[in-house]
Amino acid sequence: MSEFTEESFNALRQQLAETQAIVQQLVQERQASPSATDSSLHSPLHAFGVRLHYDWTPDLLVKYRFGLDRYLFTAPMLSDADRTSIIDNYLPIRCPSYVPPNILPEARSPESFRSGVGSIPDLSDVSSSILLDRRLENSTTNCTYRRGQFLFLEWSLQHRVNINGFSAADIVNFLSDMHYQFGYSSSTLRLFRSSILAFHQNKASLDNELHLVNSLLNTLTRRVPPKEIHRPTIDISPTLNYIRQIQSSTSTPLPLLQKKTAFLLAMTAFLRPSGLHCIDLQSADINNGFQLTFQVVSSKETRDHRRIIKPFTIFPNQDYSLCPVRTFIALRDHPSLSHFSTCSSLFVNSRCPQEPLATSTISTWLRSMIRISTEERNVSVRSIASSLALRLGIPKEDIVTLRNWTNSSTFENHYQREHMPCFNFTQILLSTDSSTSTEEERADFDMDDQEEDTFFDAMQE
C-alpha cells in the first residue's frame, strides 16, 4: 500500500469538488431547458445485465479521515434477487444523458398530446385547443388513463419509439413488457391499450394491425385462473346496526353524518362515489310526501356523447334511524355548513368545508362501512344493494332502470353476486308425485281425445 500524504489527500478532495461542480452544472442546464427531454437526446441504457460497479480499497488515512470502519465497495456474489433490487433502486453510473425515473415527470407534460394534435395539417389553433382540452381535462377517464400513459412515456423514451406514431408491434411489445416485468393483469393491460392510443396521431392507420394486440390480450386472459361467477351473500346487518347509532341530527359531527348519508343514498339509489360527488344540492327538494328528489349531473355516463342529468326520487323509511330523507335534511341544515349557502355539492370537505371534496374520500367512506360486514376486498355498495334488491323480489328491469345500465347483462356480469338457483330442483323434478300427476293428466287428456273422436265419428254417420 502506497503512502498517502496530506498533499495527495488535498488533491483528491479538489478532484471531488470539481466533479461535484460538473454534476451540478449538468443538473442546472437540464432544469433550465425542459425541452431537452426529447427522445432523440437520450442514449440507450448499457447492455449489461447488471449495473457497473467498481472495487476500491481505501487507504488507512482516508478511512481515518472519513470515519470508515469497512470498505466502501465490496464485490460479493450476488443472487438474482439482489441484482434485481440493485437495478430497481440505483441509478446507472454511466450514460449521464439518460433520464432516470426520478426526473421523468419533465416528460409527463401536455407536449406529448400537443405534438400529436398540433402536427395534423389544416387544423387551426382554436381546433387544436378544443381537441387538446378534451384530452387534458380532469375527467374520470383521463385520470384512469394516466398511469398507463406515464408508463408508456417512460418506455418510449427508453426504446426510442415515436410517441405519436408508434405501430401495433410497439403496443404489443409495451404490453408484454408491462406484463412480464411488473405483473400487470390482462384487464389492466386492456386499459393501458386504450390509454396509449390517445397519443397516436392517426389511429385509423392501426386498424389493420390491432388484431395482434387483441390476440396478445386474449392469450394472456386465457392463462388467468378461472374465477367464480357466484359470490356469497353479504349480510349487511352489522353495517346497518352501526349506522343506527349515528343520529340523524344537526348535532352529529359532520364527518359521521356525511358517511351515513353517503351510504344510505348509495344503497337506495345504486350510486357510485362519483355519482354521490355530483349530486346537485340546488336541485334537491322535499315534496309533500316527504320524498327526496335530486339530480345528478353524470360525469361518466353519456347519451350521444353528451352528459346526462339523472333524476332520483328517494322514499322515506319507517325506521327513522335508517331514513335517508331525514339524514339528508340533517346534513343540509348542519351548522358547519350554514356559512356556505352557495355550495352546490351535497358533500363537502369536513376539515375545510370551503375546499372541494375528492371522490376518493367518498370511496373511503363507503369502504369503511362495508368492511364492518365483510372482509372481502373490492366490494362495491352498488353490487351489494342491487343483488339484495333482486333477492328481495324487485324486478330486474327496475334495477337496471334505476341504475341506468344499458341492459341487464351489465348487471348480471359485473354486479350480481348470487348466481346459484334458489329453487329445489331435486324435489320438483325427481318427485314421484309430480310424475304420477303428469301421467294422470296425460291419461285424462287421452280419454278426452278418444271421446271427441267418437263424437265426431257419430256426427259423420
UniProtKB/TrEMBL annotation:
| PANTHER family given in the database record | CORE-BINDING (CB) DOMAIN-CONTAINING PROTEIN (PTHR35617:SF3), PHAGE_INTEGRASE DOMAIN-CONTAINING PROTEIN (PTHR35617)
Q: Where is this region: Disordered?
A: 436-461
Q: Which keywords does the record carry? A: DNA-binding
* Keyword DNA-binding annotated: yes
InterPro entries referenced in this protein's UniProt entry, alphabetically = Integrase-like_cat_sf, Integrase_recombinase_N
Q: Provide a GO biological process annotation.
A: DNA integration
Which is an annotated GO molecular function term of this record? Answer: DNA binding
Q: Which Gene3D superfamilies match?
A: 1.10.150.130, Intergrase catalytic core
Q: Where along the sequence do coiled-coil regions lie?
A: none
Protein name stated in the entry? Tyr recombinase domain-containing protein
Give the species this sequence originates from.
Answer: Rhizopus microsporus ATCC 52813
| Acidic residues: compositionally biased ranges | 441-461
